[in-house]
Specification:
5 strands; single chain; 9 helices; alpha+beta; three-stranded mixed β-sheet; two-stranded antiparallel sheet; about 220 residues
């Protein structure tokens, strides 16, 4: 607030006493200087809530706004963040998408890729262990297992147990007697149209997840 604007709010007697070189005039100059930083913030307040415009010190706060507290969890308030601010900005920008797909393979894999900047996470459901999920971490993210584990625990379905391992999945055992393949499948025409309401999907491990650029529409 400018000094002139503050002065106009004062009674007439104070305005006459606030001339150049007066004590009250100096006080009004100080008030203007104290208001300037706050007014600069308010003039561009929408930038505080933009994931790619907010200051670095505010990114962790926005991460908690989009329910990604487990990513920035730290034992001390002054502890360094477990990942660069740019990764946090990506998580905030995709907060609505992650919340929509939480508890799904696509949601977990997307959160892991955004937080680590690494692709190649494999989600596997062993056939001999129902309701159990094995998350295989690519070598490039092996040094961030603590972060990966926190994300996996938060993004997995509540009724599913989970284990985080590094490395590629083991090769299946070789069988000297190959099984009978049976009759060949009937080929489908190339121009066959998908049924109405069926979304295009791709497989991750044994789970089918929507493509990131073309998620299925939610029922109205």
């Amino acid at each position: 607030m400018r000094r002139a604007a503050i002065e106009r709010l004062l009674p007439a007697a104070y305005q006459r006493a606030a001339g150049p070189g007066s004590v009250l005039g100096a006080l009004l100059d100080v008030m203007e200087a104290l208001h300037a930083p706050d007014e600069a913030v308010l003039a561009d307040v929408d930038a505080l809530f933009g994931p790619y415009r907010t200051p670095d010190g505010f990114v962790a706060y926005l991460t908690r706004w989009v329910a990604m507290d487990h990513v920035v969890a730290a034992p001390r308030a002054d502890a360094p963040l477990p990942l660069p601010a740019g990764r946090l900005r990506d998580l905030v920008a995709h907060g609505a998408l992650l919340a929509r797909w939480r508890g799904t393979p696509y949601g977990m894999r997307t959160a892991l890729e955004l937080a680590t900047g690494v692709t190649g996470f494999v989600l596997d459901e062993p056939p001999d262990r129902p309701f159990h999920l094995v998350v295989r971490v690519p070598p490039a993210a092996a040094d961030r297992l603590a972060l990966v584990t926190r994300i996996v625990e938060a993004e997995k379905p509540a009724a599913v147990t989970v284990e985080v391992v590094t490395g590629d999945p083991p090769d299946p055992p070789s069988d000297p007697t190959p099984p009978d393949p049976g009759p060949p499948p009937t080929p489908e025409p190339d121009d066959a149209e998908p049924a109405a309401g069926v979304a295009t999907v791709r497989a991750v491990g044994r789970a089918h997840v929507p493509l990131p650029h073309d998620p299925p529409e939610e029922p109205s």
